[in-house]
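User: Can you predict the 3D structure for this chain?
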Amino acid sequence: MAPPETAAPAVRLDGITKRFGDVVANDGVDFTLERGTVHALLGENGSGKTTLMSVLYGLYDQDAGTIAIDGQPRAFDSPRDAMDAGVGMIHQHFQLVEPMTVLQNVILGHEPTENGLVDEAAARDDVEAICSRYDFDVDRYLDTPVRELDLGARQRVEIVKSLYRGAEILVLDEPTAVLTPQEADRLFDVMDELTASGRSLVFITHKLDEALTAADEITVLRDGAAVGTVAAADATERELARLMVGREVLFDRERRETAPGEPLLAVEDLRVRGDRGLERVREVGFTVREREILGVAGVQGNGQTELVEALAGLRPVASGAIRFRGEDVTGLSRRERIEAGIAYVPEDRQTEGLVQDYDLVHNALLGNHTIEPYARRGFVDWAAVREHAEEIVREYDVQPPTPDAEAASLSGGNQQKFIAGREIEHDPDVMVAAHPTRGVDVGSIEFIHDRLLALRDAGLAIVLVSSKLEEIRTLSDRIAVMYEGEFVDTVDPDAVTDEELGLLMAGRDRGEDPTDARRGEAEVEPDRADGPDGGGRA
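Assistant: Here is the predicted structure, written as structure tokens:
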């Protein structure tokens, strides 16, 4: 939807500079958002995308530069000021109160009152009207505690909350980082509806294809500076990747064939229950050998979370067995499995992968506190731990590049890179990797994929769970499709199409006519709560 040529831009940022000590997060950035359009802000993790929009949203004061909204100069001292000016922001890590209901979250701080009491009926009518206007299904969850919702539903709650508060300019920070492809498609439809109604959107992302699909214009940030703005219709993924990382990026990777060795991990008739006691994994069995990657594909919420937690030793097994090198490890703790050689990249980096208040040195120790050279005779060798943290930061390009940074200060993608590096550098025999590149930029995805393939070639057995079909197809030697807690088929990635995988993920036979199939979305009863950056626990 093209704005009138005479209309002032919805947002104009001129020369925005923001420093954190010696770190320059934004370096004289210019950015213009036209009315009724989607403008993608594209860049690597740590390139300054979220910081720039946090300045617009009043979370940070800029050190230099100006902000104009609808042609009027503005200065925001807080998010409240920005919201009053019609600016809303959907954060990558959702800002919801989990024990409260959806309706309570949406109206929190903006409750309509009558005779001094909250007019819940009026609030409900307003929220239902918003849901109806944009074809959200949030209205059916209004009385449900947020902790019981999956991530896609939580994100829609965040959008409804901003619209309820009158946002005309909406910043979406990495909105697809925790969504399935089907949920991402739904989000893009919502974005079209929002711009058609005259709203203006900033779409923060590191995903090239999504920027090209959803945006009208794309501005690329690198090392805190804007290095180019292009029309999405005239851009290509290769050109955008070169702008993002300053070099050519390998997109087409041919999977190297290897000869699988001895069985390392064997699962027999595994049954696992979720947090509410419902059976989430049903009689799953498989074997992964040396020099082999087994990819597990499926619409999120079909038991993948419970499966990987059982493999890692974080969730009890109801029945069945897990064997490592022929030994039954079903009853071993997470620490005992680490010591045995089973590494784990968790899907929820914030609550399972890192201690947010710890610096990276202390986070590097997690899982290593009983293992030499990091511990000797019951005492931690902090010099060795620091060296380990420095190596991860350096080798995996974690930003900011200091082991003294708190985990909470890192962007989601940089947190993910640190966790992947820590687990890979454990020198394991088996790797259980749940969404290892979730929220990670294109250059880092290339790096992590190369590391996983190198681990496989060196003799590891890897179980890879991912919602990205491209990732599953690129890395896996075999693909197991999971639906409603069961492995419905195991296929050769070279002998199956995306369409056939989609049918299997939807619980259909891959030989069916695709016109008779659903879109690949499984209606699954919520069974457990997500962390704020969790991974589709319902």
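The CA atoms of residues 131 and 378 lie 57 Å apart. Confidence is low (pLDDT under 50) at residues 514-538.
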